[in-house]
Write a structure and sequence with these properties.
Helix content is about 20%, strand content about 30%. It has about 600 residues and is of the alpha+beta class. The protein has three domains: about 160 residues, Jelly Rolls; about 100 residues, Immunoglobulins (Immunoglobulin-like), CATH 2.60.40; about 270 residues, Alpha-Beta Barrel (TIM Barrel), CATH 3.20.20. An eight-stranded parallel β-sheet has the order 27-26-25-24-23-30-29-28. Strands 3-2-5-10-7-8 form a six-stranded antiparallel β-sheet, with no helix packed on it. β15 and β16 form a beta hairpin. The longest helix is centred in the C-terminal third of the chain and has 22 residues. The protein is globular. The two termini are about 45 Å apart. The chain binds alpha-D-glucopyranuronic acid. Alpha-D-glucopyranuronic acid binds next to loops.
Length: about 600
């Protein structure tokens, strides 16, 4: 495969009246460079960076004229135009022909353009709409800035007619000293394959072989003895290259990737990486880094990962959607675990089959994008959705089944904020809880008992505390004893106490602070927030490190002496179990949700 970048100087214009389609803006004869509404835009970039469109949610048309600039036999290959990410609805035309559309802002999509692509005078038109709609994923309300547009790379891919799709590399540890590697793929066209596995130096061939299947499904297995395992501390990588040798004269490299030998599994209440218990010390991260927005330079992403590792973190949760594949590539190489998610967030149209199809497509696109990245260990199919409702829990369980059908090597879950009535907790691989004691409600000192109480009905699997935190405006300080909201001191106290408490709970397999960096949240407008969610440990505008940032190395693995209240938790369940208890807990949930909503915006 060869990729020609289509990044660069594009033109664009808004379509506030939504007249572009009926006026055929996609036709080259209707494109006029003297049109005063046309603006320059350096793709990849969100149109919210354009003056006057800082908070625009609507339709923008993008136009790009390009040459192939190389002698290419247009019949010898397949051609695809690939978008790594564009938010939200994308409609694409090439040389006035409609290619198709895509829904979703955070996963790659592509269109075959054989017979349409020309050597010169290609005219690519992309209509993007980021208007919120009830049947979309996410829908009307979400706590992040709705960046619109083509904010990730665009490429023209030149593909061999005979190639592999959906290559999956499974690594199973039969023992710590012996790994079975199972490679499977779909063949497009007809091939004769030679494969080679290189060690981390990319120079020494460890194994090689010929695969006999010439079409349809194919694959091969091999054993690697004394493998150098992939872990966050030892991110050892191997390299797989697959050649088509069907043409005697030459070997065509048709697949090439790094992979890691690691195995993630659950044993009782423990999370096991490479046959050893692991405890996740994580941070959530939105894909936003000002002044770049979502179009974050590789080095800046790498800096974030290195900073988190230097503080003692070993995991990142890509909230609440998949980030650019650059982050996953960095995580593989630098060594940090990644927990990925699709943005089935808060209230969605769970009854609508179209909405389910959108979510299922996103999940499928994400899994096939990242299936061979060793750093990725779980797929979360949503966040804080009403899991006490049957329609929602059915929607979520279907998505979890889909994830397991595609990928049996990773954990599957949904991130829940339900203290009690959560209808999916029996179906998840790992139980999760988001709860902000000491911020939205209650006192941080309640946390130890709550963690023992909620485990009672779900005692046979690990728990992850997936969100907790407190806001702080960088530079706002107050007396340690006064617990002043939005002070750096209060944020430190809440996080410090919570982390050391969770560290002391053996049925917890980890925690994730909410969140590494402050991020734009348009409805958060008090004098401390000013349009930002301030729960980051670094500020959103300039990455200034707050007090808590310097505290992590000391507390990240420290335990606090806690009372074991598991028995009390079980007694409460037994005493209160009848309907009144469910009613009672629903009241807690509704109260908690009310308090959260009241505080949220
Ligand atoms: C929720 C939600 C986040 C949100 C956070 C907050 O748990 O998952 O998206 O930003 O609370 O209120 O800060």
């Amino acid at each position: 495969m060869k990729a020609i970048s289509l990044n660069g100087k594009w033109k664009c214009k808004s379509d506030v009246e939504n007249i572009g389609i009926e006026n055929k803006w996609h036709m080259s004869e209707n494109y006029n460079l003297n049109d005063n509404n046309l603006k320059d835009i350096e793709i990849p970039k969100s149109y919210n960076f354009l003056k006057g469109f800082e908070n625009f949610e609507g339709i923008f048309w993008h136009f790009y004229q390009f040459e192939l600039n190389e002698e290419t036999d247009l019949n010898a290959n397949d051609y695809q135009i690939r978008f790594k990410g564009a938010n939200y609805n994308s409609k694409i035309w090439l040389n006035s022909k409609f290619l198709g559309e895509h829904n979703g802002g955070f996963t790659p999509f592509s269109f075959i353009v054989n017979n349409l692509i020309k050597e010169r005078n290609n005219f690519l038109v992309v209509r993007i709409e980021n208007t919120r709609k009830r049947d979309q994923i996410p829908a009307m309300s979400f706590d992040w800035f709705n960046w619109g547009g083509i904010y990730r790379d665009v490429d023209l891919l030149i593909l061999h007619k005979n190639r592999l799709n959906n290559v999956s590399i499974k690594t199973i540890l039969t023992t710590k000293q012996k790994s079975r590697v199972e490679v499977s793929y779909n063949i497009k066209g007809e091939v004769l394959l030679k494969w080679q596995i290189f060690d981390s130096t990319k120079t020494y061939i460890l194994h090689e072989g010929i695969s006999l299947e010439r079409s349809g499904k194919g694959g091969f297995n091999l054993i690697i003895n004394n493998p150098k395992l992939w872990t966050p501390n030892t991110p050892n990588l191997y390299y797989l290259r697959i050649y088509d040798i069907s043409q005697k004269s030459k070997e065509l490299l048709i697949f090439n990737t790094h992979f890691g030998i690691r195995q993630i599994e659950i044993k009782g209440i423990n999370l096991i990486l490479n046959k050893k218990r692991i405890f996740l010390k994580g941070a959530s991260l939105h894909e936003e880094y000002m002044p770049y927005g979502r179009t974050i330079p590789y080095e800046k992403r790498k800096e974030d990962v290195s900073n988190l590792k230097s503080l003692g973190f070993n995991a990142i949760r890509t909230a609440h959607y998949s980030h650019d594949e650059d982050l996953i590539d960095i995580a593989d190489k630098v060594g940090i675990l990644i927990l990925e998610e699709i943005p089935v967030y808060w209230s969605c149209d769970f009854k609508n089959p179209q909405t389910y199809e959108t979510a299922a497509n996103m999940l499928t696109e994400l899994i096939w994008r990242d299936i061979n990245h060793p750093s990725v260990i779980w797929w979360s199919v949503g966040n804080e959705v009403p899991l006490h409702k049957k329609t929602c829990s059915k929607f979520i369980k279907s998505l979890m089944n889909l994830a397991r059908a595609i990928d049996k090597t990773r954990l599957v879950t949904v991130v829940s904020r339900k203290i009690i009535p959560d209808l999916t907790r029996k179906s998840v691989d790992i139980a999760t809880i988001n709860s902000y004691f000491g911020w939205y409600f209650g006192h941080v000192k309640m946390i130890s008992f709550v963690l023992d109480l909620i485990r009672t009905p779900v005692f046979n699997k690990p728990w992850i505390y997936t969100e907790f935190g407190a806001g702080a405006k960088y530079g706002f300080h107050a007396d340690w004893n006064k617990q002043v909201k939005f002070s750096e001191e209060k944020q430190l106290q809440v996080l410090d106490y919570t982390i050391r408490t969770i560290n002391s709970k053996d049925h917890f397999a980890g925690w994730f602070i909410w969140i590494y960096r402050d991020f734009r949240a348009p409805k958060r407008l008090n004098k401390f927030q000013q349009g930002y969610n301030r729960k980051g440990i670094v500020s959103g505008e300039h990455n200034e490190k707050k007090l808590i940032y310097y505290r992590f190395p000391k507390i990240i693995s420290e335990k606090r002496k806690t009372y074991n209240t598991k028995i009390l938790g079980i007694l409460l369940w037994i005493i209160f179990f009848p309907l009144s208890y469910l009613l009672f807990t629903r009241m807690i949930d509704q109260f908690l949700e009310y308090r959260v909503k009241k505080e949220k915006f």
